Protein backbone atom coordinates (compact mmCIF):
# COMPACT_ATOMS: atom_id res chain seq x y z
CA UNK A 1 0.00 0.00 0.00
CA UNK A 2 1.18 3.52 -0.67
CA UNK A 3 0.78 6.69 1.36
CA UNK A 4 2.97 9.33 2.95
CA UNK A 5 1.54 8.76 6.43
CA UNK A 6 1.69 5.09 7.41
CA UNK A 7 -0.74 5.56 10.30
CA UNK A 8 -3.61 6.40 7.91
CA UNK A 9 -5.83 3.46 6.98
CA UNK A 10 -7.72 5.19 4.14
CA UNK A 11 -5.54 8.03 2.81
CA UNK A 12 -8.07 8.78 0.04
CA UNK A 13 -10.97 8.87 2.49
CA UNK A 14 -12.61 5.65 1.30
CA UNK A 15 -11.61 2.01 0.77
CA UNK A 16 -10.27 1.10 -2.64
CA UNK A 17 -12.11 -1.58 -4.63
CA UNK A 18 -11.16 -5.02 -3.40
CA UNK A 19 -9.36 -3.79 -0.26
CA UNK A 20 -11.39 -5.93 2.13
CA UNK A 21 -10.96 -8.99 -0.08
CA UNK A 22 -7.17 -8.50 -0.25
CA UNK A 23 -6.87 -8.00 3.48
CA UNK A 24 -8.90 -11.07 4.36
CA UNK A 25 -6.94 -13.22 1.94
CA UNK A 26 -3.64 -12.03 3.43
CA UNK A 27 -4.99 -12.58 6.95
CA UNK A 28 -6.04 -16.13 6.08
CA UNK A 29 -2.57 -16.91 4.71
CA UNK A 30 -0.95 -15.67 7.91
CA UNK A 31 -3.18 -17.36 10.50
CA UNK A 32 -3.36 -20.70 8.69
CA UNK A 33 0.17 -21.00 7.30
CA UNK A 34 2.20 -18.25 8.95
CA UNK A 35 3.31 -17.16 5.49
CA UNK A 36 3.96 -13.54 4.44
CA UNK A 37 1.36 -11.65 2.42
CA UNK A 38 1.91 -9.95 -0.95
CA UNK A 39 3.87 -6.72 -0.43
CA UNK A 40 1.00 -4.40 -1.45
CA UNK A 41 -1.83 -6.23 0.30
CA UNK A 42 -1.25 -5.07 3.90
CA UNK A 43 0.24 -1.92 5.43
CA UNK A 44 3.60 -2.73 7.12
CA UNK A 45 2.25 -1.29 10.38
CA UNK A 46 -0.68 -3.71 10.28
CA UNK A 47 1.40 -6.68 9.14
CA UNK A 48 3.82 -6.19 12.04
CA UNK A 49 0.89 -5.99 14.43
CA UNK A 50 -0.62 -9.19 13.00
CA UNK A 51 2.69 -10.96 13.57
CA UNK A 52 2.85 -9.74 17.17
CA UNK A 53 -0.75 -10.88 17.72
CA UNK A 54 0.02 -14.30 16.26
CA UNK A 55 3.12 -14.63 18.44
CA UNK A 56 1.08 -13.72 21.54
CA UNK A 57 -1.30 -16.58 20.84
CA UNK A 58 -4.33 -14.39 20.13
CA UNK A 59 -7.11 -16.54 18.66
CA UNK A 60 -8.44 -14.82 15.50
CA UNK A 61 -11.87 -16.38 16.09
CA UNK A 62 -11.89 -16.62 19.88
CA UNK A 63 -13.94 -14.96 22.57
CA UNK A 64 -13.75 -11.24 23.29
CA UNK A 65 -11.01 -9.75 25.47
CA UNK A 66 -11.24 -10.30 29.24
CA UNK A 67 -13.05 -7.88 31.54
CA UNK A 68 -10.51 -7.09 34.27
CA UNK A 69 -12.46 -4.49 36.25
CA UNK A 70 -16.07 -4.62 37.40
CA UNK A 71 -18.47 -2.53 39.48
CA UNK A 72 -16.81 -0.99 42.56
CA UNK A 73 -13.29 -1.92 41.42
CA UNK A 74 -13.87 -0.18 38.09
CA UNK A 75 -15.40 2.91 39.74
CA UNK A 76 -12.51 3.23 42.19
CA UNK A 77 -9.89 2.75 39.48
CA UNK A 78 -11.49 5.35 37.20
CA UNK A 79 -11.85 7.88 40.01
CA UNK A 80 -8.13 7.63 40.81
CA UNK A 81 -6.91 7.64 37.19
CA UNK A 82 -4.98 10.73 35.96
CA UNK A 83 -7.33 11.10 32.96
CA UNK A 84 -10.46 11.42 35.14
CA UNK A 85 -10.09 15.22 35.67
CA UNK A 86 -9.87 15.85 31.90
CA UNK A 87 -12.82 13.67 30.91
CA UNK A 88 -15.03 16.81 30.39
CA UNK A 89 -12.61 17.93 27.64
CA UNK A 90 -12.97 14.59 25.84
CA UNK A 91 -16.74 14.68 26.16
CA UNK A 92 -16.94 18.22 24.84
CA UNK A 93 -14.72 17.58 21.81
CA UNK A 94 -15.73 14.02 20.89
CA UNK A 95 -18.61 12.52 22.84
CA UNK A 96 -21.17 15.31 22.41
CA UNK A 97 -21.30 14.76 18.64
CA UNK A 98 -20.61 11.02 18.69
CA UNK A 99 -24.24 9.92 18.32
CA UNK A 100 -24.84 12.21 15.36
CA UNK A 101 -21.57 11.03 13.82
CA UNK A 102 -22.33 7.34 14.52
CA UNK A 103 -19.24 6.80 16.66
CA UNK A 104 -18.18 5.31 19.99
CA UNK A 105 -15.55 7.12 22.06
CA UNK A 106 -13.36 5.07 24.38
CA UNK A 107 -10.67 6.10 26.85
CA UNK A 108 -8.17 3.47 28.00
CA UNK A 109 -5.41 3.29 30.57
CA UNK A 110 -1.80 2.59 29.61
CA UNK A 111 -2.45 -1.17 29.75
CA UNK A 112 -5.31 -1.04 27.24
CA UNK A 113 -8.11 -1.38 29.80
CA UNK A 114 -11.25 0.50 28.78
CA UNK A 115 -12.07 3.11 31.41
CA UNK A 116 -14.92 4.95 29.71
CA UNK A 117 -16.93 3.86 26.65
CA UNK A 118 -19.47 6.46 25.54
CA UNK A 119 -21.22 7.74 22.42
CA UNK A 120 -23.82 6.26 20.08
CA UNK A 121 -26.07 4.00 22.18
CA UNK A 122 -27.03 1.65 19.37
CA UNK A 123 -23.40 1.10 18.40
CA UNK A 124 -22.40 0.58 22.02
CA UNK A 125 -25.03 -2.14 22.30
CA UNK A 126 -23.56 -3.88 19.26
CA UNK A 127 -19.99 -3.42 20.53
CA UNK A 128 -20.85 -5.07 23.85
CA UNK A 129 -21.12 -8.40 22.04
CA UNK A 130 -17.34 -8.31 21.49
CA UNK A 131 -16.60 -7.07 25.05
CA UNK A 132 -15.90 -3.51 23.91
CA UNK A 133 -17.01 -2.29 27.34
CA UNK A 134 -15.59 -0.43 30.32
CA UNK A 135 -13.26 -2.65 32.32
CA UNK A 136 -12.25 -4.86 29.36
CA UNK A 137 -8.59 -5.11 28.34
CA UNK A 138 -7.94 -4.31 24.67
CA UNK A 139 -4.15 -4.42 24.73
CA UNK A 140 -2.73 -5.81 21.49
CA UNK A 141 -1.27 -8.93 23.14
CA UNK A 142 -4.75 -9.94 24.32
CA UNK A 143 -7.16 -8.47 21.76
CA UNK A 144 -4.97 -8.53 18.65
CA UNK A 145 -4.57 -5.65 16.21
CA UNK A 146 -6.94 -2.79 17.13
CA UNK A 147 -6.48 0.98 17.17
CA UNK A 148 -6.22 1.66 20.93
CA UNK A 149 -4.17 -1.47 21.64
CA UNK A 150 -1.82 -0.95 18.70
CA UNK A 151 -1.50 2.80 19.42
CA UNK A 152 -0.34 1.88 22.92
CA UNK A 153 2.01 -0.83 21.61
CA UNK A 154 3.61 1.63 19.17
CA UNK A 155 3.14 4.72 21.36
CA UNK A 156 1.88 6.52 18.25
CA UNK A 157 -1.45 7.47 16.60
CA UNK A 158 -2.90 4.77 14.37
CA UNK A 159 -6.00 3.85 12.38
CA UNK A 160 -7.25 0.32 11.78
CA UNK A 161 -9.72 -0.24 8.97
CA UNK A 162 -12.20 -3.12 9.13
CA UNK A 163 -10.38 -6.24 7.99
CA UNK A 164 -7.04 -4.92 9.24
CA UNK A 165 -8.16 -6.11 12.69
CA UNK A 166 -6.53 -9.38 13.67
CA UNK A 167 -9.60 -10.89 15.28
CA UNK A 168 -12.37 -11.63 12.80
CA UNK A 169 -15.27 -10.67 15.12
CA UNK A 170 -13.87 -7.10 15.18
CA UNK A 171 -13.44 -6.79 11.40
CA UNK A 172 -16.84 -5.11 10.77
CA UNK A 173 -15.55 -2.11 12.75
CA UNK A 174 -12.96 0.61 12.07
CA UNK A 175 -11.18 2.76 14.63
CA UNK A 176 -8.77 5.66 15.13
CA UNK A 177 -6.73 6.13 18.30
CA UNK A 178 -3.85 8.11 19.74
CA UNK A 179 -1.87 7.77 22.99
CA UNK A 180 -2.05 10.35 25.77
CA UNK A 181 1.03 11.34 27.79
CA UNK A 182 1.45 13.45 30.88
CA UNK A 183 2.83 16.72 29.47
CA UNK A 184 5.29 17.22 32.33
CA UNK A 185 6.57 13.72 33.12
CA UNK A 186 6.05 12.20 29.67
CA UNK A 187 4.48 9.10 31.26
CA UNK A 188 2.06 7.19 29.02
CA UNK A 189 -1.39 7.54 30.61
CA UNK A 190 -3.62 5.77 28.09
CA UNK A 191 -5.27 6.27 24.72
CA UNK A 192 -8.30 7.97 23.21
CA UNK A 193 -10.15 5.94 20.60
CA UNK A 194 -13.01 6.50 18.19
CA UNK A 195 -14.76 3.38 16.85
CA UNK A 196 -17.49 2.97 14.25
CA UNK A 197 -17.95 2.25 10.56
CA UNK A 198 -15.61 2.83 7.61
CA UNK A 199 -15.88 6.61 7.99
CA UNK A 200 -13.95 6.39 11.28
CA UNK A 201 -10.84 5.27 9.36
CA UNK A 202 -10.69 8.46 7.27
CA UNK A 203 -7.89 11.02 7.78
CA UNK A 204 -10.07 13.78 9.27
CA UNK A 205 -11.20 11.52 12.15
CA UNK A 206 -7.61 10.79 13.18
CA UNK A 207 -6.94 14.53 12.99
CA UNK A 208 -9.87 15.07 15.35
CA UNK A 209 -8.57 12.46 17.78
CA UNK A 210 -5.08 13.96 17.75
CA UNK A 211 -6.53 17.43 18.35
CA UNK A 212 -8.45 16.05 21.33
CA UNK A 213 -5.27 14.50 22.72
CA UNK A 214 -3.50 17.86 22.35
CA UNK A 215 -6.33 19.60 24.22
CA UNK A 216 -6.27 16.95 26.96
CA UNK A 217 -2.51 17.23 27.43
CA UNK A 218 -2.82 21.04 27.51
CA UNK A 219 -5.47 20.76 30.21
CA UNK A 220 -3.25 18.37 32.18
CA UNK A 221 -0.40 20.86 31.96
CA UNK A 222 -2.65 23.63 33.26
CA UNK A 223 -3.91 21.46 36.11
CA UNK A 224 -0.32 20.62 37.02
CA UNK A 225 0.62 24.31 37.12
CA UNK A 226 -2.40 25.10 39.29
CA UNK A 227 -1.41 22.39 41.73
CA UNK A 228 2.14 23.77 41.88
CA UNK A 229 0.86 27.32 42.38
CA UNK A 230 -1.64 26.52 45.10
CA UNK A 231 -0.43 27.39 48.57
CA UNK A 232 -0.17 24.37 50.82
CA UNK A 233 -3.09 24.17 53.20
CA UNK A 234 -3.40 22.46 56.52
CA UNK A 235 -4.65 18.96 55.78
CA UNK A 236 -8.17 18.21 56.87
CA UNK A 237 -8.41 15.47 59.43
CA UNK A 238 -9.78 12.38 57.77
CA UNK A 239 -10.86 9.20 59.43
CA UNK A 240 -8.11 6.62 59.23
CA UNK A 241 -9.36 3.29 58.00
CA UNK A 242 -7.44 0.46 59.57
CA UNK A 243 -5.64 -1.62 56.97
CA UNK A 244 -5.88 -5.30 57.90
CA UNK A 245 -2.66 -7.30 58.13
CA UNK A 246 -1.62 -9.05 54.91
CA UNK A 247 -0.33 -12.61 54.93
CA UNK A 248 1.64 -13.53 51.79
CA UNK A 249 2.06 -17.26 51.17
CA UNK A 250 2.10 -17.63 47.37
CA UNK A 251 5.46 -18.65 45.94
CA UNK A 252 7.18 -18.01 49.28
CA UNK A 253 9.11 -20.64 51.27
CA UNK A 254 8.11 -18.78 54.43
CA UNK A 255 5.18 -16.43 54.83
CA UNK A 256 5.47 -12.69 55.31
CA UNK A 257 2.96 -10.93 57.56
CA UNK A 258 2.66 -7.18 57.02
CA UNK A 259 1.43 -5.45 60.18
CA UNK A 260 0.87 -1.71 60.77
CA UNK A 261 4.31 -1.64 62.41
CA UNK A 262 5.94 -3.26 59.38
CA UNK A 263 6.57 -6.68 57.80
CA UNK A 264 7.39 -9.78 59.82
CA UNK A 265 9.11 -12.80 58.26
CA UNK A 266 7.66 -15.94 59.82
CA UNK A 267 9.26 -19.32 60.36
CA UNK A 268 7.87 -22.16 58.27
CA UNK A 269 5.91 -23.58 61.22
CA UNK A 270 4.44 -20.19 62.12
CA UNK A 271 3.66 -19.65 58.43
CA UNK A 272 1.69 -22.89 58.38
CA UNK A 273 -0.21 -22.17 61.58
CA UNK A 274 -1.18 -18.63 60.61
CA UNK A 275 -2.30 -19.72 57.15
CA UNK A 276 -4.42 -22.53 58.61
CA UNK A 277 -6.05 -20.08 61.02
CA UNK A 278 -6.66 -17.58 58.19
CA UNK A 279 -8.29 -20.32 56.11
CA UNK A 280 -10.45 -21.29 59.11
CA UNK A 281 -11.40 -17.63 59.66
CA UNK A 282 -12.53 -17.37 56.04
CA UNK A 283 -15.06 -20.08 56.86
CA UNK A 284 -16.02 -18.35 60.13
CA UNK A 285 -14.32 -20.99 62.26
CA UNK A 286 -11.56 -21.50 64.79
CA UNK A 287 -9.36 -24.53 65.45
CA UNK A 288 -8.60 -26.72 68.44
CA UNK A 289 -4.99 -27.55 69.20
CA UNK A 290 -5.71 -31.17 68.31
CA UNK A 291 -7.05 -30.28 64.86
CA UNK A 292 -4.17 -27.90 64.17
CA UNK A 293 -1.76 -30.68 65.16
CA UNK A 294 -3.38 -32.99 62.61
CA UNK A 295 -3.29 -30.29 59.91
CA UNK A 296 0.33 -29.38 60.65
CA UNK A 297 1.98 -32.73 61.24
CA UNK A 298 1.45 -35.80 59.09
CA UNK A 299 2.76 -37.99 61.90
CA UNK A 300 0.27 -36.76 64.48
CA UNK A 301 2.49 -34.67 66.80
CA UNK A 302 1.01 -33.98 70.23
CA UNK A 303 -1.25 -30.95 70.65
CA UNK A 304 1.05 -29.61 73.39
CA UNK A 305 3.72 -28.93 70.75
CA UNK A 306 1.23 -26.88 68.72
CA UNK A 307 0.19 -24.93 71.82
CA UNK A 308 3.81 -24.00 72.46
CA UNK A 309 4.27 -22.84 68.85
CA UNK A 310 1.06 -20.78 69.02
CA UNK A 311 2.24 -19.14 72.24
CA UNK A 312 5.45 -18.07 70.52
CA UNK A 313 3.46 -16.89 67.47
CA UNK A 314 1.17 -14.77 69.69
CA UNK A 315 4.19 -13.03 71.22
CA UNK A 316 5.50 -12.33 67.71
CA UNK A 317 2.33 -10.97 66.07
CA UNK A 318 0.48 -9.61 69.10
CA UNK A 319 -2.18 -10.92 71.46
CA UNK A 320 -4.76 -8.68 69.77
CA UNK A 321 -4.46 -10.76 66.57
CA UNK A 322 -4.47 -14.32 67.87
CA UNK A 323 -7.00 -15.73 70.36
CA UNK A 324 -7.45 -19.11 72.02
CA UNK A 325 -10.16 -21.54 73.15
CA UNK A 326 -10.51 -22.24 70.26
CA UNK A 327 -7.47 -20.82 68.47
CA UNK A 328 -8.68 -18.17 66.06
CA UNK A 329 -7.91 -14.81 64.47
CA UNK A 330 -9.40 -11.91 66.46
CA UNK A 331 -9.55 -9.55 63.48
CA UNK A 332 -9.49 -9.59 59.68
CA UNK A 333 -6.32 -10.83 58.03
CA UNK A 334 -6.05 -10.65 54.25
CA UNK A 335 -4.08 -13.26 52.34
CA UNK A 336 -2.75 -13.18 48.80
CA UNK A 337 -4.32 -16.63 48.42
CA UNK A 338 -7.78 -15.23 49.25
CA UNK A 339 -7.24 -12.44 46.72
CA UNK A 340 -6.64 -14.98 43.97
CA UNK A 341 -9.79 -16.87 45.03
CA UNK A 342 -11.78 -13.64 44.95
CA UNK A 343 -10.67 -12.89 41.39
CA UNK A 344 -11.58 -16.41 40.32
CA UNK A 345 -15.01 -16.03 41.93
CA UNK A 346 -15.54 -12.93 39.76
CA UNK A 347 -14.50 -14.80 36.62
CA UNK A 348 -11.29 -12.78 36.21
CA UNK A 349 -8.98 -15.67 35.29
CA UNK A 350 -6.35 -13.40 33.74
CA UNK A 351 -6.15 -11.13 36.79
CA UNK A 352 -6.03 -14.19 39.07
CA UNK A 353 -3.11 -15.57 37.07
CA UNK A 354 -1.39 -12.19 37.39
CA UNK A 355 -1.83 -12.32 41.17
CA UNK A 356 -0.68 -15.95 41.48
CA UNK A 357 2.96 -15.66 42.53
CA UNK A 358 3.43 -19.42 42.86
CA UNK A 359 2.33 -22.43 44.93
CA UNK A 360 1.20 -22.01 48.54
CA UNK A 361 4.27 -22.37 50.82
CA UNK A 362 5.96 -24.80 48.41
CA UNK A 363 8.35 -26.23 51.04
CA UNK A 364 5.60 -27.14 53.48
CA UNK A 365 4.53 -30.77 53.90
CA UNK A 366 1.82 -29.97 56.46
CA UNK A 367 -1.34 -31.82 55.34
CA UNK A 368 -3.57 -28.75 55.70
CA UNK A 369 -1.17 -26.58 53.70
CA UNK A 370 -0.73 -29.24 51.02
CA UNK A 371 -4.53 -29.39 50.67
CA UNK A 372 -4.76 -25.59 50.36
CA UNK A 373 -1.95 -25.64 47.78
CA UNK A 374 -3.73 -28.25 45.69
CA UNK A 375 -7.08 -26.46 45.91
CA UNK A 376 -5.57 -23.17 44.77
CA UNK A 377 -3.72 -24.71 41.83
CA UNK A 378 -6.76 -26.75 40.79
CA UNK A 379 -9.09 -23.73 40.91
CA UNK A 380 -6.73 -21.61 38.85
CA UNK A 381 -6.06 -24.42 36.39
CA UNK A 382 -9.77 -25.01 35.91
CA UNK A 383 -10.45 -21.32 35.25
CA UNK A 384 -7.62 -21.08 32.73
CA UNK A 385 -8.71 -24.23 30.88
CA UNK A 386 -12.33 -23.07 30.79
CA UNK A 387 -11.27 -19.69 29.39
CA UNK A 388 -9.79 -21.33 26.25
CA UNK A 389 -7.67 -18.19 25.91
CA UNK A 390 -4.28 -18.99 24.32
CA UNK A 391 -2.35 -16.30 26.18
CA UNK A 392 -3.57 -17.61 29.55
CA UNK A 393 -2.92 -21.23 28.61
CA UNK A 394 0.61 -20.34 27.52
CA UNK A 395 1.25 -18.62 30.85
CA UNK A 396 -0.24 -21.51 32.85
CA UNK A 397 1.79 -24.18 31.04
CA UNK A 398 4.94 -22.15 31.75
CA UNK A 399 4.40 -22.66 35.50
CA UNK A 400 6.04 -25.60 37.35
CA UNK A 401 2.56 -26.81 38.38
CA UNK A 402 1.72 -27.53 34.76
CA UNK A 403 5.00 -29.02 33.58
CA UNK A 404 3.54 -32.56 33.47
CA UNK A 405 -0.10 -31.60 32.91
CA UNK A 406 -0.82 -33.21 29.53
CA UNK A 407 -4.43 -32.02 29.50
CA UNK A 408 -3.36 -28.40 29.93
CA UNK A 409 -0.73 -28.69 27.19
CA UNK A 410 -3.33 -30.29 24.91
CA UNK A 411 -5.79 -27.46 25.59
CA UNK A 412 -3.04 -24.94 24.86
CA UNK A 413 -2.20 -26.61 21.54
CA UNK A 414 -5.87 -26.66 20.52
CA UNK A 415 -6.36 -22.99 21.43
CA UNK A 416 -3.31 -21.66 19.57
CA UNK A 417 -3.96 -20.41 16.02
CA UNK A 418 -2.65 -22.69 13.28
CA UNK A 419 0.18 -20.34 12.29
CA UNK A 420 1.35 -19.43 15.81
CA UNK A 421 5.14 -19.75 16.23
CA UNK A 422 4.44 -21.18 19.72
CA UNK A 423 2.72 -24.30 18.38
CA UNK A 424 5.85 -26.37 17.56
CA UNK A 425 7.26 -26.05 21.09
CA UNK A 426 3.88 -26.82 22.69
CA UNK A 427 3.36 -29.82 20.40
CA UNK A 428 6.86 -31.14 21.14
CA UNK A 429 6.36 -30.88 24.91
CA UNK A 430 2.99 -32.61 24.66
CA UNK A 431 4.51 -35.44 22.61
CA UNK A 432 7.28 -35.87 25.21
CA UNK A 433 4.69 -36.09 27.98
CA UNK A 434 2.76 -38.78 26.11
CA UNK A 435 5.91 -40.82 25.48
CA UNK A 436 7.17 -40.55 29.05
CA UNK A 437 6.87 -43.77 31.08
CA UNK A 438 4.06 -43.77 33.62
CA UNK A 439 4.13 -44.88 37.18
Provide keyphrases for this structure.
439 residues, alpha+beta, Arc Repressor Mutant, subunit A, five-stranded antiparallel beta sheet, four-stranded mixed beta sheet, GAF-like_dom_sf
Write a compact overview of the structure shown.
This protein has 439 residues and is an alpha+beta fold.
Question: Could you please describe the fold and organization of this structure?
Answer:
This protein is of the alpha+beta class and 439 residues long. It has three domains: 19-227, Beta-Lactamase, CATH 3.30.450.40; 265-333, Arc Repressor Mutant, subunit A, CATH 1.10.10; 336-435. It has 17 helices and eleven strands. The chain has a five-stranded antiparallel beta sheet with strand order 2-1-5-4-3, sandwiched between helices. It has a four-stranded mixed beta sheet with strand order 8-7-6-11. The chain has a two-stranded antiparallel ribbon with strand order 9-10. A hairpin with a 4-residue loop joins strand 1 (103-109) and strand 2 (114-119). The longest helix is centred in the middle third of the chain and has 27 residues, at 203-229. The N and C termini lie far apart (58 Å). The mean pLDDT is 87.
